[in-house]
Write a structure and sequence with these properties.
This protein is α+β, with helices and mostly antiparallel strands. It has a single domain, classed as Helix Hairpins (Orthogonal Bundle). It has two helices and four strands, in the order αββββα. The strands form two sheets. Strands 1-2 form a two-stranded antiparallel sheet. It has a two-stranded antiparallel sheet with strand order 3-4. Strand 3 and strand 4 form a beta hairpin. GO terms for molecular function: transcription corepressor activity. One of its GO terms (biological process) is positive regulation of transcription by RNA polymerase II. InterPro entries: Prefoldin, Prefoldin_subunit_alpha. Keywords: Coiled coil.
Length: 152
Amino acid sequence: MQSLAKVDEYINEQLKQQLRAAFEVRNEIVTKLADYVKLKDVLKALKDTGMTGKPLKMQVDIGDNFYVHAKVPDWSTVFVDIGYGFLLELTPEETLKFAAKKIELLESRVSQESKNIARLKARIKILTFGLGQKHGMNLDLLADSNSPRQMI
């Protein structure tokens, strides 16, 4: 009985906490990914409309979805936040190349985190199923009771 309590504690204290942390990490990566996609889309739209070299009027998010009007007299260079408080001055063309590589990197990180989340969910499901079997509960993982049992 003590071993069952330890397994239950392991599920709730370790695995579920790891799962929450993995979701938070993935959500942060997805947010960064969305920012780079938005940057790439804006620069492509400006380039396609022939706005190169012309002053811009835009709204800038200064935090918590609070926007202010801004005038950009010269956008021949763009400052890109590359992390750790560093800004990189790039041309729009360089920014597009940088954004494309960053998007690719972030997409692979989202995929890795999604796999990690799936592994944690599977471990939780397997251990929970094992606890149910140990307690003598009849847990059907599959909706069709006539089909052979499979572990998901």
